[in-house]
Amino acid sequence: IDTLGLGGAEISLLGICSRFKNAEPVFLVLDRKSEDLHVEYTSKGLTIHYVSLDETVAPNRLAMVLDRVRELSPDLIHSTLVHSDQISRGLALDLKIPVVNSLINNTYCWRRYRLENWSVRIKLFSIQLWDLLTANRVRLFVSNSEAVNDSYSKAVMVPPDRIRTIYRGRAAHPFDAVPEQAIIDFRALRTLS
Fold first, then answer.
1. Of 50, 54, 33, which is closest to residue 41 (Cα–Cα)?
2. Which helix (H) or strand (E) holds 77?
3. What are 163-179's pLDDT values in tens digits?
4. Is the pTM of this model over 0.90?
5. Terminal Cα-to-Cα distance of the chain (whole angstroms)
6. What sign does the CA torsion over 70, 73, 75, 76 have?
7. How far apart are CA 143 and CA 163, in angstroms?
């Protein structure tokens, strides 16, 4: 994973992986800039290793991670977020370990392209092209929604049967007690936009 910051993917992974009974997830974190969830992960018994890539020159990044992955000798590599996805696909060339990538948002939807300036559109398109060219190195994609499945499958030409949905690993009980009026107000706001 890229970081252990307070993002949606990081919180979902904490919720999902802390419930594993027949597998031992080990996290290889690529950037120490944000360690907000470190204590939460370790208190759930999850193992974390850091590889600080923030100061490392790009060609050396893959070599650093490759050495660490060889030390850990995993049965599977599951990456989450764009930098770790890029590195995991590089690892797939060197190792005989299956790679799984997470899909967490509609990165390449037309609306995002439309809202960005030209320089960001060019960067986004270059990442989409890279994604398209390297998707065959990934054994399976795991998405957090059917909408993301459809969008990604079309944008990167990944067959839908290579994408599985696992909904966010967060507990639903905080949302059980939402007052009816709050739901009505929220729906009214959505129709205004």
1. 50
2. strand 77-79
3. 998 876 555 566 566 67
4. no
5. 34
6. negative
7. 7
